[in-house]
Structures are given as structure tokens and as C-alpha cells.
């Protein structure tokens, strides 16, 4: 009598089917994960502008100077966008609103041109005292996409 050597065809087919099912489940989750990881560059790009606006408001000599701190944020945003890979600096949406101080950063087409927004609360044009603390409200199309 001969011993059976190796696997039967049905056993190999079952293994292939299991691997295919696992790949079908894991691949979309992995693609979403990589897009979220790439979008972290977009979120990080807003950091210098946020810090510049906060420092300007805290150190302003008077209310008029504090309300003009958006320019400091715009300069910091422009300086921070050196050689971006996933941030679209050419987009008109990547800017700091000169009235309210809201920061908007737009991703490249690789990330579906999603936007990330940070809005100070209170807005710069509604500040009531020098050195007033700002709270930041997140927004943008990235929330619905699940990137931020």
C-alpha cells in the first residue's frame, strides 16, 4: 500500500479561497489606512499657522493688532509649505482667512483634494480683549471622508 504524499486538489482550493476572502477584506481597509496616514501631512501643515496666530494674539499690544494676526498665520503657512508631497499649495483654498483667521489646507488629487479647516473661536474679527485665548474648531471635507 502507498502512502499519500502532498495535498489533494480540494485542500489546495480551500486554502486559495480562504486567502482570496481575506485579501478582499483587508485590501480596502489598507487603502483607507494609507490615505489617512498621507492626510496627516495636510493636518500637520496647518500647525505653523495655528501657532503663529496664537502667539500673535497672546503678544498683541492692542485689540487692533490682535485682530490683524491672520497675516502672521498666512506667512507661517506659506513658509511651512516647502516641498509638500500631499498638500496642494497652488490651490486657492490653501490659505488663512484675513478676516476671521480660519486656516484652510487642501490636499492633492491623490487624496481627492479633501480640505482641512481650523477656525479660531472667537474669530479674530470678533475678539473682545487683548490676549484672549483661542479655541480651534476642526472642519472641512476630510471629516466626511474619514481622514481627520
Descriptive account of the structure:
- The protein has 148 residues and is an alpha+beta fold.
- It has one domain: 2-Layer Sandwich (Glycoprotein, Type 4 Pilin).
- 47% of the residues lie in helices and 12% in strands.
- The protein has 5 helices and 4 strands.
- The protein has helices at 9-45, 47-59, 63-67, 70-80, 142-145; strands at residues 95-96, 103-106, 115-121, 135-139.
- Strands 1-2-3-4 form a 4-stranded antiparallel beta sheet, with helices on one face.
- α2 (47-59) runs antiparallel to α4.
- The termini are far apart.
The gist of it:
Helices cover 47% and strands 12% of the residues.
Major sheet attributes: 4 strands, antiparallel
CATH class: Alpha Beta
With helices defined by DSSP (H or I, 4 residues minimum), what is the helix count?
5
Categorize the overall geometry: rod-shaped
Write down the secondary-structure element order: HHHHEEEEH
Number of domains: 1
CATH topology: Glycoprotein, Type 4 Pilin
What low-confidence regions span 5 or more consecutive residues with pLDDT below 50?
none
CATH architecture: 2-Layer Sandwich
Strand content: 5-15%
Mean pLDDT: 90
SSE class: alpha+beta
- Strand adjacency order, main sheet: 1-2-3-4
Query: Portion of residues in helices?
Result: 40-55%
- Rounded to an integer in angstroms, the radius of gyration calculated over CA atoms is 25 Å
How many strands?
4
How far apart the termini lie comes to 65 Å
Amino acid at each position: 500500500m502507498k502512502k499519500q504524499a502532498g495535498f489533494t486538489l480540494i485542500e489546495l482550493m480551500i486554502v486559495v479561497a480562504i486567502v482570496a476572502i481575506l485579501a478582499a477584506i483587508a485590501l480596502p481597509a489598507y487603502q483607507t489606512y494609507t490615505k489617512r496616514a498621507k492626510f496627516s501631512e495636510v493636518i500637520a501643515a496647518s500647525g505653523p499657522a495655528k501657532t503663529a496666530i496664537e502667539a500673535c494674539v497672546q503678544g498683541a499690544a492692542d485689540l487692533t493688532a490682535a485682530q490683524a494676526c491672520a497675516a502672521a498665520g498666512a506667512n507661517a503657512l506659506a513658509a511651512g509649505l516647502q516641498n509638500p508631497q500631499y498638500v496642494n499649495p497652488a490651490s486657492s483654498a490653501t490659505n488663512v482667512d484675513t478676516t476671521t483667521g480660519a486656516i484652510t489646507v487642501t490636499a492633492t488629487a491623490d487624496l481627492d483634494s479633501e480640505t482641512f479647516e481650523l477656525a479660531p473661536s472667537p474669530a479674530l474679527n470678533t475678539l473682545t480683549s487683548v490676549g484672549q485665548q483661542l479655541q480651534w474648531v476642526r472642519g472641512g471635507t476630510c471629516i466626511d471622508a474619514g481622514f481627520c
